[in-house]
Amino acid sequence: MGILLVEDEPNVVSVIKRGLTDYGFEVSVAANGATGLQMALDNDFELIILDVMLPVMDGIQVCKLIRQQKKQIPIIMLTALDSTENIVSGLDSGADDYMVKPFKIAELAARLRTLLRRSSGETLVNNTYTISDLLLDTDSKIAYRNKEALKLTATEYRLLEYFVKNQKKILSRIQILESVWDIDFNMGTNVVDVYVNYLRKKLEKNGGIKLIHTVFGMGYMMKEGNKDEDTK
Ligand code: CA
Questions:
Q1: Which of 47, 73, 138, 169 has its CA 20 to 30 A from that of 151?
Q2: What is the distance in A from the centroid of ligand 1 to the CA of 159?
Q3: Burial zone of 231 (CB within 10 Å; 0-12 exposed, 13-18 middle, 19+ buried)
Q4: What digits encode the pLDDT tens for the residues 160-208?
Q5: DSSP readout, 174-212?
Q6: Residue 175 alpha carbon to ligand 1 centre in Å
Q7: For the chain, which residues make up each domain, given as ranges?
């Protein structure tokens, strides 16, 4: 699980790793193409960030070989400034997207989320999700608790859908903010707390176990569990 970063320059690795970790991603690193390929094939990463210029085996070659084995996994290529050729051969080799160095981590994080959203959509077998007695129909965009439809605003619905699709993961306020509100500027994360409280009230209006838990100092998590497990 998590993201695989295949990059040989230690400075770039540390900047990307630190940055993405702040955005809530879990990042594993491979420092050359051959190791990257091996790690990609041996593990179930959600996404691969692949530099083009790599020792042992270049990113284009790695990408082609990954595609031969794992067709679905999203791959984003990192390429040097102004090397149009890299971009074209990167996309030809089966990459889904590319970033030209240098780039802002916020932009990389946004691209990752888009790719992850797309890939989770493709593997969806049906359009309903459940946790405990909560059922979410993403076609009609209606949530039911104990078979009763909840009256949610559009924002509350998007927030609930994000939680339900990311069950059992700790979601930081900034992650929630950027995924649900889809904004790049700093709006402040208070709005997340406010909406989580609205949503909790509606979810728990007619009883049922608590589903959205506060993870102190980190954010929130949706899971089935009783109040005692809440770390707040
Ligand atoms: Ca490199």
A1: 169
A2: 38
A3: exposed
A4: 999 999 999 999 998 898 888 866 555 677 888 989 999 999 999 888 8
A5: HHHIIIII---S---THHHHHHHHHHHHHHTTT-----E
A6: 28
A7: 3-120, 128-222
What is the distance in A from the centroid of ligand 1 to the CA of 78?
Answer: 8
Ligand 1 center to 149 CA (angstroms): 52
Convert the pLDDT of each residue in 112-148 to its tens digit: 988 887 776 544 446 788 888 898 988 778 899 988 8
Fold designation for 128-222: Arc Repressor Mutant, subunit A (1.10.10)
Neighbours of 187 (CB within 10 A): 12
Distance, CA 16 to ligand 1 centroid (Å)? 13
Could you tell me the two tokens for 108? 């990389």
How many residues would you count in the chain?
Answer: 232
Cα 75 to ligand 1 centre (Å): 16
Q: Which residues surround ligand 1, an ion (CB under 5 A)?
A: 8, 51, 53
CATH class of the domain whose range is 3-120: alpha beta
- Output the pTM of the full model: 0.53
